[in-house]
Design goal:
This protein folds into two domains: 164 residues, Phosphoglycerate mutase-like (Rossmann fold); 46 residues, no CATH class. The model has no long low-confidence stretch (mean pLDDT 95). The protein is α/β, with parallel strands linked by helices. The chain has seven helices and six strands, in the order βαβαβαααβααββ. It is 43% helix and 15% strand.
Length: 223
């Protein structure tokens, strides 16, 4: 039985004009994850990656630490939802930059509210697919992995939205639980599914084993 390793991208540039760019810490997280796997002799038979810049940069960092990786298949269905479009749909007026803890919490309260409405079919953010189309895209990727890669180790690099959706598909969680899982996912965290011929089964969630140790204190981030 193989394993699907779902990795959330490293720390990006939250609050900056261009979020879709790894921070220096985000790059370090990705390289460390690859090195952790290299130390344990882990190799991948296939790699799937979203097409956002932070996905590709995370994969490049993992490959650097790992000492190489198979050619990645670019999969747009692994791209994140548009959080700004979601927030604009529930709050049309401009949102202040999240420069304080309270503004940071306000941003994520609005996002969770918008996600719940989008997933419930009562919100249609501009330029975004409906929830069922988004969910179906993630489901299709999981089915592709199950059908093609039983017995293999597969690396998948994506974002919190698709990864929490994948967990929701495997565990049949209600929308509010999927949203809560989404908000808990940490940068460069690893979630593992065993790949069986009939189904995927979750083994671990949101693990940062590669950041254990005093030398990595302060490396755990969420955005």
């Amino acid at each position: 039985m193989g394993t699907l390793y779902l990795v959330r991208h490293g720390q990006a540039s939250f609050g900056a004009d261009d979020y879709d760019q790894l921070s220096e810490r985000g790059h370090e997280q990705a390289v460390r994850l690859g090195a952790y796997w290299r130390e344990r002799g882990l190799q991948f038979d296939a790699v799937l990656c979203g097409t956002l810049r932070r996905h590709e940069q995370t994969l490049a960092g993992i490959a650097q630490g790992l000492g190489g990786a198979p050619q990645a298949l670019s999969v747009p269905q692994l791209n994140e939802y548009d959080s700004l479009a979601l927030i604009r749909a529930v709050r049309p007026s401009p949102l202040p930059a999240p420069a304080t803890p309270e503004l940071y919490r306000q941003y994520f309260r609005l996002l969770c509210d918008a996600l719940a409405q989008w997933m419930g079919g009562t919100l249609s953010p501009e330029g975004m697919p409906g929830w069922e189309q988004f969910r179906s895209g993630v489901h299709g990727v999981l089915e592709q992995v199950r059908q093609r890669h039983a017995g293999h180790n597969v690396l998948l690099v994506s974002s919190g939205g698709p990864i929490s959706t994948a967990v929701g598909e495997v565990l049949s969680t209600p929308a509010e639980v999927t949203i809560a899982l989404n908000m808990r996912l940490r940068n460069s965290a690893v979630t593992e599914f065993s790949i069986g011929p009939k189904r995927l089964m979750m083994q671990t969630f949101n693990s940062l084993a590669h950041l254990d140790g005093p030398q990595y204190e302060g490396w755990a981030t969420h955005a």
